[in-house]
Design goal:
Length: 160
């Protein structure tokens, strides 16, 4: 009986390092996170000289299928919301608008080099994935967001 225990113990001890080596070899080929996936294509370090870069976290809205493949074009969420507001109020402003526009171009260049993302979500018709880019730390994160149209405030016209 003790020989069987010794044999099973030896098999267990010898398979653990082998499985670790196999797991390491497989994980080396695939990125571990969105940040690792975007880093080779995203020039976030070029923005570090800008004093207010830590005050913005621009988001990129995309549609993906259930396998993580990107469907359609990407949109800069904050810029698109500003342009929608400007339809109703041509004087609408956004803090650091030009910085958001430049950051948007950088994010779009980065995602143009990728075909799929490690996000496996089934999206409903009104849902999309928002990728949040932190330019001061070089981190990319994601969240699911329902499309929300701009709410137009009613203006009351006084009749005199």
């Amino acid at each position: 009986m003790s020989q069987i225990k010794n044999f099973l113990f030896a098999v267990l001890i010898s398979t653990v390092p082998v499985s670790y080596v196999i797991a390491e070899a497989n994980s080396g080929n695939s990125p571990k996170s969105l940040t690792d996936l975007f880093r080779p294509y995203w020039s976030y370090t070029a923005f570090w000289a800008i004093p207010s870069i830590d005050k913005i976290n621009p988001r990129l809205a995309i549609k993906i299928n259930s396998e993580g493949k990107i469907i359609g074009r990407s949109r800069c969420y904050e810029i698109e919301r500003l342009e929608q507001r400007r339809i109703f109020n041509p004087l609408a402003k956004m803090v650091n608008e030009q910085l958001h526009r430049v950051a948007c171009k950088s994010m779009k260049l980065a995602i143009k080099n990728l075909d799929d993302l490690p996000i496996y979500e089934t999206l409903l018709p009104g849902e999309e994935i928002l990728l949040r880019f932190n330019f001061s730390r070089g981190i990319v994160s994601s969240s699911k967001k329902m499309f929300e149209p701009i709410q137009v405030q009613e203006t009351s016209e006084s009749s005199g």
